[in-house]
Amino acid sequence: EAGVAQSPRYKIIEKRQSVAFWCNPISGHATLYWYQQILGQGPKLLIQFQNNGVVDDSQLPKDRFSAERLKGVDSTLKIQPAKLEDSAVYLCASSVSGPTYTEAFFGQGTRLTVV
Amino acid sequence: GDSVTQMEGPVTLSEEAFLTINCTYTATGYPSLFWYVQYPGEGLQLLLKATKADDKGSNKGFEATYRKETTSFHLEKGSVQVSDSAVYFCALSEYNQGGKLIFGQGTELSVKP
């Protein structure tokens, strides 16, 4: 079974530039998550989708971050404009749907460096 | 709000030593508890879980017991190997939160031969 795919693996941009990350979840997984992992910290949820609807985006800095999940499959996360503090690993995860926890499978992440 | 606190790392052990990584949590409801592991260059993987008080999760020689009275979920292994070197994350998920995970800050483990 193919895992969660993310691209690119690494990205270096200057502050105030824009960047986009892509995620392809495991086939059949209705729930998709984007987490931000700053160096030395645990992952923090940015946004959660159920199919193509947003379930939770309370921690997403909406003035600069946006995300979409078209047709309930692939998802993109965009930052515009980027700030130095956005330097982090952006993790995508997916799981089968349900009101309670079902195992989330994580991609390898995209490491973003803002200079 | 809910939170997870782990012991700070890095933790450095010799092969075959006993491992404990402490984890405590604060939750408003009755969460499920997890340990995730991140090996170098790989994504996060679920190591073990426990869904109710006094449950013991176990996998690959690792164990953790859900202690509601002390709000703890400490990770233990009797004899670590070099291949266990990784970053370990304790996490919780509240019932009816759609599977959202709240993570601790992670503990880096380095096992020397």
Overview of the molecule:
The complex is a heterodimer of chains A (115) and B (113). Chain A is an all-beta fold and 115 residues long. Chain A contains no helices and eleven strands. Chain A has strands at 5-7, 10-13, 19-24, 31-37, 44-50, 53-56, 65-69, 75-79, 88-95, 105-106, 110-114. In chain A, the strands form two sheets. In chain A, strands 2, 4, 5, 6, 9, 10 and 11 form a seven-stranded mixed β-sheet that branches. Chain A has a four-stranded antiparallel β-sheet with strand order 1-3-8-7, with no helix packed on it. In chain A, strand 7 and strand 8 (75-79) form a beta hairpin. The termini of chain A are far apart. Chain B is mainly β and 113 residues long. In chain B, 0% of the residues lie in helices and 49% in strands. Chain B contains no helices and twelve strands. In chain B, the strands form three sheets. In chain B, strands 2, 5, 6, 10, 11 and 12 form a six-stranded mixed β-sheet that branches. In chain B, strand 5 and strand 6 (45-50) form a beta hairpin. Chain B is globular and about 45 Å long. Chain B starts with a strand and ends with a strand. Chain A binds chain B through residues 3-4, 31, 33, 35, 40-45, 48, 50, 55-56, 91, 93, 95, 98-104, 106-109, and chain B through 4, 32, 41-46, 49, 51, 89, 91, 93, 95-106.
Labels describing this entry:
heterodimer, A: 115 residues, mainly beta, 7-stranded mixed β-sheet, 4-stranded antiparallel β-sheet, 11 strands, B: 113 residues, 6-stranded mixed β-sheet, 12 strands, 0% helix, globular
Distance separating the two termini of chain A: 37 Å
The computed structural class of chain A is mainly beta
- Tell me the number of strands of chain A: 11
Write down the overall geometry of chain A.
globular
What does the largest sheet of chain A look like?
Answer: 7 strands, mixed
Number of helices of chain B: 0
